[in-house]
Amino acid sequence: MPDQISTERGSRPNVLVITADQWRGDCLSSVGHACVRTPNVDALAKEGTLFRRHYAGAAPCSPARATLYTGLYQMNHRVCRNGSPLDRRFDNLALAARRAGYDPTLFGYTDTAPDPRDMDANDPHLTTYEGVLPGFTVRELLPEHERQWLSWLRSRGRADAVSRDVHIPVGAAAGEISDAAPAYSREETQTAFLAGEFIRWMGEQDAPWFAHVSFLRPHPPFSVPEPFNRMFKPGEGPAFARAKHREMEQQGHPYLAYAMPRTGKGSFIHGADGPLSDWTAADFDAIRSIYYGMIAEVDDQLGRIWQALKDAGEWDDTIIVFTSDHAEMAGDHWTLGKGGYFDGSYHIPLVIRDPGAASSGSVVQNFTSATDIFPTLCNRLGIRPANGIDGRSLAPFLDGGVAPGWRDAAFWEFDFRDIAHGEAERHFGLRSNELNLAVIRDEQFKYVHFTALPALLFDVVNDPMELRNLADDPAYASVRLNYAERLLSLRARHLDQTLAYTELTEKGPVTHRP
């Protein structure tokens, strides 16, 4: 029997967990963005709870999602990069949902590399990091090659949809930054495809359900159809958080000097070649305006899902979690993508609508973490995680209250080892386990600890763009020491507790569940 805990909130609900890959936490109209409008996320927030200071636990995709799905910090789940296997011993939200009596069903992807230790060496699942989180039933798998979506497009008469070249805007050359639209329409995007598949599946259900809809967008390549492609003009939006010149930015830290020149264009504009450093400030302006349009496109499809839930009479029986795995630099600090230590990569949206909650329309300013999603769902479904986890349930906030002893800072990690090729190891002359950083960030300061590279300290109140490193300023020595000690204590509290809360006694095993 599953280890049950009591719940006071009615019968078993439906659960819908939605991730929109690479969506920045500041890109919501409900938090006051200068130009982005997200009416459907805003509508969800009005009936639910909006978390203003929500942060990913790691980057890129696989590490970030491992944190989201397991409730563990990277220091415990050890998914260090795309392709790092997720240890099979860890519980996750799909396995937990299954114990609660659901058949958790996936639309999209989870980027979970399988544990190879009990698999045959010739198993093709060992050749990709785009595996499926254990516990999920897959209804529609859509990894980055997008073949299922391309096949669907061809079935709709798009004979040219034979490869990802379909993302190249009509009239543009491969690799060209263009606000022209691709050939497919707003009803034919990957987002529309997955939304439609979920809606069709929902209509087949005759019992409470659990679904994870994992949208690729606004992840690059940066391209979006009408009317979203020209919805925002280059130059609209807040000032970029960056130094005056790219060279000044790279001089800010040895990690930046290593990583920035190695970031390629091809990850962001389909068909592009060469380093990101070839792009000008105007190019970043143009790309960011397309990124904003991609956010609007996803929001448009979220509205379609909300309406389908209402039409089916499921709206008031469904817990909805909307979030992202990690964020997007979007030109801040002269770069794109995710990773490193800047807020732009880790500040992500979170909105939860729980019809059984005692409050709605509330805004939470406390620091929350991707680790909190798993324990929140476990709390709501009346089950316990099968192992110790690092997050805490957000249920007190959903009920309009406060959580005693809640964290007073955000924490995240980034690992830049290169197991397959060893490039980072050779560049820095360091071992793989020395190529990582950890961040603690509160309302006043942000401290970045590198295992074997210089530390960083920013006053985020007076230097919100994180351009002035105070780590070596004698006037801030005591501040640096304080944050280093807080980080050390945080890591000590969250070391793997799987068996640490169990003690064998003369009366048998005693387990304490905090």
Description:
This is Alkaline phosphatase family protein. It holds the Pfam family Sulfatase. It comes from Rhizobium mesosinicum. InterPro entries: Alkaline_phosphatase_core_sf, Sulfatase_N. Residues 13-383 form the Sulfatase N-terminal domain. By secondary structure, this protein is α/β, with parallel strands linked by helices. It folds into two domains: 53-406, Alkaline Phosphatase, subunit A; 409-514, Arylsulfatase, C-terminal domain (2-Layer Sandwich), CATH 3.30.1120. Helix content is 25%, strand content 15%. It contains 13 helices and 14 strands. The strands form three sheets. The chain has an eight-stranded mixed β-sheet. Helix 6 (190-202) runs parallel beside helix 9. The chain is globular and about 70 Å long. The two termini are 21 Å apart.
Compact overview of the structure:
By secondary structure, the chain is of the alpha/beta class.
Tell me the layout of helices and strands:
Elements: E1 14-20, H1 39-47, E2 49-55, H2 61-70, H3 74-77, H4 93-99, E3 105-108, E4 137-141, H5 147-155, H6 190-202, E5 210-215, H7 246-250, H8 254-259, H9 281-311, E6 318-323, E7 350-353, E8 362-369, H10 373-381, H11 395-398, E9 410-415, H12 423-428, E10 436-441, E11 445-450, E12 456-459, H13 477-493, E13 502-505, E14 508-511
Parallel strand pairs: 1-5, 1-6, 2-8, 3-4, 3-5
Antiparallel strand pairs: 2-7, 6-7, 9-10, 10-11, 11-12, 13-14
Helix pairs in contact: 6-9
